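Render this sequence as a predicted structure.
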Amino acid sequence: MTLSIDFIDETEQLSEGETELIQGILNFAASKEGVEESSEVSVTFVTNERIREINREYRHKDQPTDVISFALEEMGEDEIEIVGADMPRVLGDIIISVERAKEQAEEYNHSVSRELGFLALHGFLHLLGYDHLEEQDEKVMFQRQKDILDEYGLKRE
């Protein structure tokens, strides 16, 4: 299973190992979820200030957050679905605050790499339609996250 992943590191703080880890966990999750070969996703790494701007603009929450996902497959009002076209599936965008990832890694007493992998997976599952607004949905999503991370070998250290 190979996703087409476009990495954009606006912070210039990520190591090659960290992007490889994220690529690995997302490809692993895609195979577990039955995502079509060559589906596309972008992962952008930003500062707290930048994610705060995005959160304010799109979610009307004036605060930094750890990860935001924009699913491109959700049909909006007055949109027409394109069917039958032989095009790769474009899942959407995952935006991760590197600063927040570092803060949370320290809070949870595990590595920054583990936190980045967790956040990328969390955002990816949102792109696939998982959510945690309702308690039942949260249980399903968080259990799926844990199962994928554990099976991949990215456990809390």
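Summary. The two ends are 27 Å apart (CA to CA). The beta strands are 4-9, 40-46, 67-71, 90-97.
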